[in-house]
Amino acid sequence: MALPPTVPYFDIAWDDLLFLTFGGLMLAAALGVVLGRNIIRSGLAMILSFAALAGIYALLGAPLVAAAQVLIYIGAISVLVLFAIMLTQSKSGPASLVFHHQAWAAALAAIVLALLLVSMVAGAEWPRAVAERVHTATGDVARLLFDEFVLPFEVVSVLLLAAVIGGVFLAKREDTDVPETEAGARQVTLGSEPGGASGRAASGIASATIVAAEDLGRRP
Amino acid sequence: MTTDQLLVTLLLALPIGGFALTALVGRRLYQRAWIIAVGAIVATWLIAMYLVYNTLFLNAYGAQGLHFTLYEWIPAGDFRIEANFAVDNLTAALLIVVCTVGMLVHVYSIGYMAHDPGRWRFFAYLNLFMFSMLLLVLADNFLLLFAAWELVGLSSYLLIGFWYGRRSAALAAKKAFLVNRVGDVGFALGIMAIWTTVGTLNFPEVFERIPLLAESGVIQPWQMTGLALLLFLGAVGKSAQFPLHVWLPDAMEGPTPVSALIHAATMVNAGVYMVARANPLFVQSPSAMWLIAGVGIFTAILAASIAFTQRDIKRVLAYSTLSQLGYMFAALGVGAFTAAIFHLMTHGFFKGLLFLGSGSVIHGVHDEQDMNRMGGLWRKMPITHITMLIGAIAIAGIPPLAGFFSKDEILGQAWKNGFVWVWAIGIVVALMTAFYMFRLMGKTFYGPSNVDPAVEPRVHESPRSMTVPLLLLAIPSAVLGVALGFPIGAGLIEQWMEPVFEGANEVLGRGQAEPFQVLGLDGFLAGASVAVAVLGVLAAMRLFGFRVPLLGLQAKPRPAVVERLTDRLRPLYTGSFHKWFFDDLNDLIFVRAGGLVARGLWWFDVHIIDGAVNGVAGLTQRSGRGLRHIQTGRVQNYALGIALSLIVVAVGYFVAGGR
Amino acid sequence: MSAQEWLAIGPLLAVFALAMLAVVLDIARPGRDRLVTGVMVVGLLGAIALTGYTAWYFGGGEVEVFGGAYVRDALTSFLDLLFLSIALLTILFSPDYLHPRRLPMAEYASTLMFAISGAMLLGAARDLLVLFLALELLVLPGYMLAGYAKRDGLSTEGAIKYFLLGSFSSAIFLFGLALVWGFAGSTRIPEVAAVLTSLDGAVSLTPALTMGLALLTAGVAFKIAAVPFHYWTPDAYQGSPTPVTGYLSVGPKVAAFALILRLFVDALAPLKADWVPFIVVLAALTMTLGNLVALTQDNIKRMLAYSSIAHTGYILVGLAAYAAAPPGSDTERAGLEALLFYSAAYSFMNLGAFAVVTALQKRTGVTSQITTFAGLGRRAPLLGALMFLFLLSLTGIPPLAGFWAKAYVIIAAVQVDSPWLIGLAVLTVLNAAAAAFYYLRIAVVMYMGEPSEQTAPVQVGRLVSAGLVLSAVATILIGLVPGPVIAFAQEAARALL
Amino acid sequence: MTELPILTLVTFSPLIGALLIAFIPRHNVQLVRWAALATALVSFALSLALLPAFDARQAGFQYVEQLDWIPAFGIQYKLGIDGISLVLVVLTTTLSWISILASFGPIKDRVKEFMISFLILEVGMIGVFTALDLFLFYIFFEVVLVPMYLIIGIWGGANRIYATIKFVLYTLAGSLLMLVAILATAFAFQAGHGGDWAGAFDYEQLRQFGFDITLQLFAFGAFFLAFAIKVPMFPFHTWLPDAHVEAPTAGSVILAGVLLKLGGYGFIRFAVGMFPDAAQSYAPWIIGLSLIAIIYGAIVALVQPDMKKLIAYSSVSHMGFVTLGIFIFQQQGMEGAILQMVNHGIITGALFLCVGVLYERTHDRTIAKMGGLAARTPVYAAIFGFFMLASIGLPGLAGFVGEFLVFVGTFAVSPVAAFSATIVMTVGAAYLMWMYQRLIFGEVSDFLKGLGHHLTDMTPTELVTLTPLVALTVIFGLFPGLVLELIHVPVDGILLQFRDATAGVAP
Amino acid sequence: MSQSLDAYLVLASLLFCIGTFGFLARRNAIAMLMSIELMINAVNLVIVAFGAFTPELADRASVIALIVMAVAAAEATVGLAIVIAIYRNRRTPLVDEYHSMRE
Fold first, then answer.
1. Helix B559-568 and helix B521-544: axis angle, to 10°?
2. pLDDT bracket for residue C386 (50, 70, 90)
3. What pLDDT score was predicted for residue D254?
4. Residue from the list C144, C158, C185 with its beta carbon closest to the beta carbon of E54
5. D145 in contact with C at a CB cutoff of 8 Å?
6. A54, A197, B299, C343: which could form a disulfide with B326 (CB 3.0–4.6 Å)?
7. Closest to A217 (Cα-Cα) out of A122, A95, A99, A76
């Protein structure tokens, strides 16, 4: 069954429709991430945003990247983030706890930056770019990875290893958990989690991190 | 080095050696601390007399005198200064006074200082002074003269401040040095000017070139006047002329032999000597000469007026010295160089005599200097009395004693050279001089005794070491005038000084001196002098008493009349008594105002200059402290800062690279 | 890969190997900190020797590995030696601090080695992607080291500030890289440079490149802690365990300059006329603010943090001199030489200064307040003298290393025929004079103050002593005989141009 | 170079001594002291050994030692001396051993550190006078700062930290700017020689190289600031009173005796030697500042309550003569300036020693508290008086000739300047005499009476420190030719070059 | 529209700025971390978009994007570990409460 070349009634290309849909979804979800008062919902919005982005990757003819996006971001990173959220804060707080009082300035800065970036894009000429999209052959990617990109590939594995070793140490709970502070750190209790539980959860996230990281290390 | 050169060198070496030795070992000599110093000076005197004889009487060194160089002192490129010396007639004349008075003062001091624990210091200082003074008269270039100039100042400082424990002595010493320094500044500048314009500082060369340079216009008249006045400023300081006269009376804080030696007979004459020495230079500038005459005669009358009312015996003599020095400068100013030197010599002896006599008096009444607490001493101190009387007559200008000849010469020359006003003032001064000198004599030796009753019985004549010098000094005071100045205008002194002042006289257009006319102008002038002198003497005798032992003449003092007179002239009396308030004026200007300025500048230094320095440091610190606050400790602030900076950088790139 | 290529990457591999060895050793023999330390020291010495050998072997030539992504030239060798020395000194200083606080050595050493490998890779990369990865390999372990004393509230606070801001700037930097990459169409630096050169000068800066450049500038400015991107520095430095602070103040900073050399000087050189004004301004701001704020600090680590900001400013003067000089001139090279020389000199003296602080903190509970130093000149004369030496060098007193560093930077700046650079040189010396104040303040406390209450005898461990001696010798030697280092720096700079 | 590197020996002999002393146990104070003295005497002897073979008539530098140090920039290890350097080197070595001897008593705490600092200080000072490579010169110039910083800061008075930091910061600010100028000129030289660095820091070669006027103005400005602070010239002088007041006696002696001369030497050798045109342009201003310094320093000295402060301000005044003499560019002036440096070093050094002697006994320097010392300590009073008179500029003693030569030179160029400067003859005498009168004359003050038998006359050690200075003061006063002969040729050279260079430039 | 590189770049820019805003405005450490992930994703989108429109870069873009993802993962790992560590000390995830060190 052949689809019509354009979307019926709207007279826009299917591609464009998909682009607008995914793009709109992604931005909306991203806004949800930064504006949401409930941090858990923010996390979920992030997943949605990543998923929409995966759609855009697919639309751009990069299926491998799209797949990796789903696996890595949605499958691993987002989960980690959600774990961490659970661990540090369960309830949504009032706006004052969510936003810094410099939020208005932050908004202003972000808008100015956006204007700059958009105006840049509008006037840009890219000497190498072509008007038509090109498609990627997945096989070429693999070859490149072990030829031209062999050094980056190796470095990434080292990087992950380093992250794991350090991460495990930092997140590891120790029995002799005596705070030794130089100037006497301020103990501010805001979260609702009792200490013991948080400690155990920390070990959990650490191992999850290791798993995720090793997973990532193997996959590409 | 010839024998004579060696002798000149010895002339300097002996006293400085004496100084060094006495300073090092004098303390160990105890009572005989004087032995080295006096020995050295006696030897010096002998050598000096030999040289004087050679110069003046044998004319052994020719008209130019003996010149020689010891070594090169300052070799700085074109500025080459040698340590060179000269003995000519002028020097010889000075040597007579300096060495003779100096030697007698040394001897006199043996007795006078016998009981002072610091006597070794005293003799060392005296020797140092003799060295400096001899260097001054022997020096053959301006810088060496200047060096000696400063050294005599130093000796004077040391000797005035000899009793350092007395605050007044210390202050007087400092004052003397500093006031002298003011003059020295001028002298130094004059020397620089000479070197810059003439290119040398050696006397013979300078005096040879100066007339040529002035004639050819290389040195403009105004420059010449400036030059002369700068040098004269030095003379004003050293010879205590107005307005730098203030130090000399205070200098009487020193032991009396010092007053006699330095502040009457020798050092204060240095200014006169210098102007006389540099006569070829001064005569090039008539206006400078006029000013010198003016300053001289003004000082003469000013000082005389103060001497009227002083009570301290040494102060009267000090003001008298000022006054007589004023005469000498007046003489120099009117072009009567010979007369100036003549008066210098006679004055050196009789004023030395008077000072030593006053010292003897002070010694006799146990360190009392107030004349109101003396009186009637003629009986107890006969030698002192007689010798001082000779000195007083001499200074009053009564013939045939020494003062008459030299003073008359000055006044006569002033009239004849067209400075009638100088003569007029001079004659008034002569009157005053006679008066205050006999006021002194009357209050000290005649009339009723006002001596402290506790001391009265112990008043005695001084020991021989003191009286012998008095006697020895009385002789020249009495006869030197006749010996050198007779016949008037053609005496020995004229012959001696003729080669020295030949050039100057030529420039001033003065030919061979006319022979003295008893019945002409000369006679009139001489008569006037004698008349006022006698008048002054008589007036003083009438008011303050007198006594002529041999003739049995005597009069009682009349304090009541004196009282009435002073009451009638109260403002004048007060002014005179307070030395016309010069000291107060100086105190106001230099001490108080100067102190204020200094304090003001110090404040400026601490608060403005240093304040600026510390202010910059403080500002830096403060800005550092201010900038600390951007580090709030909150990550979001930091991030916002970074984001804003990023925007600035991006905009910057757009603006700067917007092509 | 040929043997030559293996040799070229030998030092890097060695450090990787050491990083893993540390963990393996810990697994095999848990808790043997001294063993780990020993192995690390020996290994690093070996690596240094190996680097020296490679440097000698390749001489002035260059070898490309991985298809040109990695290059070994004189610059690589220079930087490798420097980073390895930094690593060695840091390892020497650390046990005395870690052990009393019961912090394990193995993870520490491993993480440090990873960071160093990142630094070394930065100095050798000729590929934008590798540069980015190397940068991450450098900073990620850095975050963890900063928070290594994880029971210490200040340490973790510093770490999270460092991490958050660092990641933020990494994202910015990455965006910039992506734009440049999209513009140039290649990740290989020579190709990027070729594309940029081929552009006509008149239209060199398209909006896209402009934005890319802006993002990159901001990114690297953050990494070197240039004002106004410096905010993380004082907090991270103050919070970190003291030996880590020492490392952070030199390792990542010099490595970030290596990044600048490879990215800005190599790839973006054709655009240098566009970015030089920013470097000038950054340099001026950085040194001035660093010094001004350092004046008022009471905590020595924080003070040295601000001081290190100021030193960044001085190093930037060298970069500015390079950038402002006409292309191809000797002057251009002088700027780079100055940058390299300064980095080397600065590393030794700054590490030395931190090492003294570390030595004092062997006893737990010793704070970093400047008062800690009170009477040190009396309590531990040698330690005090060494501190004084390092402070003098930091001040720039001849004939120590720091003096030559400043002189070199200034000589590079005054060579450029530009009033801006002359002004920068003058600003540099004015800053140096102001800086003397706070360095001397420590000397004042050490020598002229009276010891405070807590005067326990200071014991300095053998390793720390060795490290201190090494730093001191380097500081003095570079001062007395700067010739060899200059020659090496010249060769390195030549390799770049 | 097969000959004995005698200049290196002279320069670094104190360093060797310092290193040896470092190995002497801390508690063996006496050995430390004597070792330091021995070291200083050795370097003194070595510096004297330079004299016999020195040819005063030969232009250029002698005993030159030259080694490449940093070939990349043409930086050399180059030492050499001419008459000016020689005189100042000997002055340094002389004052050094005297100062060390003078610290035997006063320095009781941390003697070892003191002696080491002092010897290193000596190295720096000698090095400044012998270095012929600008970079080397700069290094020595800076090296001096550190030990002096310690000497004032550790062994100084109550307010020592303020004083020492002020001293260092002030000096550093100036000298660092000079570094910029040195590097800029070196680069100009290099650029003028086709990019060849060889000789770019070599003083003799730089002198031959005509720098363009813009660079000269800039570089001279920087050099000027460095040296003006060191001299110190008004208005950069405020560090000096503080530093003097707080410094220990030996520190003050060296500070006044040698450190200030680094500035004067720098002016003559480098600022004028290398940038004659700029020197010409700036000269009127510098002369003006010198005159202000001369008079201002003297007037402010009048009202100082503290002996050391008074002498410090008198130093400002006296050093004004040095700058004045240099910048009138006239032979007598410049020779006078150098002579004045030497003489001021001796005399003011001695005055500080005298103050130290009194301070040792009274632990006070307030003039108002003293009085009548002549009665209690006659020898001290005599020696103090001697140096007071020398400082006033009494003919026959050392102070006079230099001062007068400066006057003469100044008068030849500008009578007005000379007029203003001579005022100080009076004021200068006034403050010293006033101080002397208050200290020495009059009745013994209550404060001194209270000290009882602690107020002793001078000890033999103190006499040994001061006697050589007395001798030198007399010798240089009577035979200034000893110094003038040595400096004549170099001064001629500098002025000749100055005239050649500025002949084309209208003033 | 979807055939235009510009459109993707605009989309990516907007996403980047939303991330920036989140980073600047949120107080919670994890929220900030998420914002950073958004920013990195924006860059990845730029990379893939370039790849899609530039023939030479087509394959390479995918590789680079994958590698960047891996880096992001490593960063997240480290970040979360640090967050956990500090949470254990401070008991709050609110970053602006961490201001023991300032000025």
1. 110
2. very high
3. 93
4. C185
5. yes
6. B299
7. A76
Q: Which of E42, E71, E98 sits opposite C160 (nearest CB)?
A: E98
Q: Distance from C248 to chain D by nearest Cα, in Å?
A: 29
pLDDT at E2: 65
Q: Which long-range contacts (CB under 8 A, 24 or more apart) does A161-164 make?
A: A161/A217, A161/C20, A161/C114, A162/C19, A162/C110, A162/C111, A162/C114, A162/C115, A162/C137, A162/C140, A162/C141, A162/E74, A163/A213, A163/C140, A163/E74, A163/E75, A163/E77, A163/E78, A164/A209, A164/A210, A164/A213, A164/A214, A164/E77
- Domain of residue E68: give its range: 5-96
B165: chain D residues, CB-CB within 8 Å: 372, 374-375, 441-443
Estimate the crossing angle of helix D481-503 against helix D83-102, to 10 degrees. Answer: 130
Peptide bond before C277: cis, by omega within 30 degrees of 0? no
Mutate one of B635, B640, B646, B647 to test the E interface: name it (highest E CB count within 10 A): B635
Say whether A169 and C104 touch across the interface (CB within 8 A).
Answer: yes
Identify any residues that bridge with D77 across adjacent strands, giving them in sequence order.
D67
For B196-246, the pLDDT digits (tens) are 988 889 988 998 888 888 888 888 888 889 999 999 999 999 888 888 888
pLDDT tens-place string over residues D35-67: 999 999 999 999 999 998 888 888 889 899 999
**Considering its fold, how many domains does chain E have in total?**
1
Range of D332's domain? 300-482
Tell me the mean pLDDT in the region C51-67: 88
pTM, two decimals, is 0.89
Q: What is the pLDDT of residue C198?
A: 81
Among E36, E54, E100, the residue with its CB nearest the CB of C168 is: E36
Token pair 């010469």 in the structure block, residue: B409
Q: Which ranges of chain A have pLDDT less than 50?
A: 90, 177-208, 210-220
pLDDT of B519 strictly over 70: no
Minimum Cα–Cα distance from B652: chain A residue: A116
Residue with tokens 């800061």: D153
Distance from CA of A90 to the nearest CA of E (A): 11
Q: What ipTM describes this predicted complex?
A: 0.89
CB contact under 8 Å between D303 and B613, yes or no, is no
Query: Residue E103 falls within a domain, yes or no?
Result: no
Burial class from Cβ neighbours inside 10 Å (0-12, 13-18, 19+) for residue D318 reads buried
User: Would residue D309 count as lying in a domain?
Assistant: yes
Parts of chain A belonging to CATH 1.20.120.1200? 1-90
DSSP result, A149-176: THHHHHHHHHHHHHHHHHHHHHH---S-
- Residue E101 within a domain: no
Judged by CB atoms within 8 Å, which residues 12-31 of E form the interface with A?
13-22, 24-31
- B629 to chain E, any CB pair closer than 8 A? The answer is yes
The answer to whether position D214 is within a domain reads no
Instruction: Identify the CA nearest to B300 among candidates B286, B320, B270, B279.
Output: B320
Q: CATH class for domain A1-90? A: mainly alpha
Q: Which two tokens stand for residue D427?
A: 């004021």
Sign of CA dihedral B38, B44, B48, B50: positive
What angle (nearest 5°) sits at the alpha carbon of residue D365, between those of residues D360 and D370? 95
Instruction: Please tell me the total count of domains within chain D.
Output: 1
Chains with ≥3 CB–CB distances under 8 Å to E: A, B, C
